[in-house]
Design a protein that fits this description.
Largest sheet: none
Helix content: over 70%
Length: 130
């Protein structure tokens, strides 16, 4: 992903914002679906370009002798955070604030669960030092 890609994504977002604001009073359901579609297009374009970056990050960590068990939980947790943030925003846009709050709680619990292997390794490292 480069600066041109980011500008294109901003253009998609801006067009969707203008259209949803125009449609919101007359047809809120269509405005919501338009916002959802624009969000999915943006996320698809971002995630389709991430494959190369993930391979490079994996190679860098492997060259540094770092085990997957150290960085994989962090990457998964970031993924959970992105999904929860997007779904929370969509829920709020649809007027479902309580649902968004529940999603955020579920995401927090999952993030803690995903980081448990990393926490266990840190605790065992501290135990070795002591």
């Amino acid at each position: 992903m480069n600066m041109g890609d980011l500008l294109a994504l901003c253009g998609i977002a801006l067009a969707a914002i203008v259209l949803t604001l125009t449609l919101k009073k007359e047809s809120p359901a269509i405005a919501f679906l338009l916002a959802l579609t624009a969000g999915l297009v943006i996320l698809f374009r971002v995630f389709s370009g991430m494959g190369g970056a993930v391979r490079e990050i994996t190679q860098v960590f492997a060259q540094g002798g770092m085990s997957e068990t150290l960085y994989l939980p962090v990457i998964k947790t970031v993924g959970v955070a992105v999904v929860v943030r997007v779904m929370g925003a969509l829920s709020r846009d649809a007027g479902q604030s309580a649902l968004a709050a529940k999603l955020e709680i579920a995401g927090s619990v999952l993030a803690i669960a995903l980081c448990m292997p990393l926490l266990q390794q840190v605790l065992s490292l501290i135990e070795e030092w002591i």
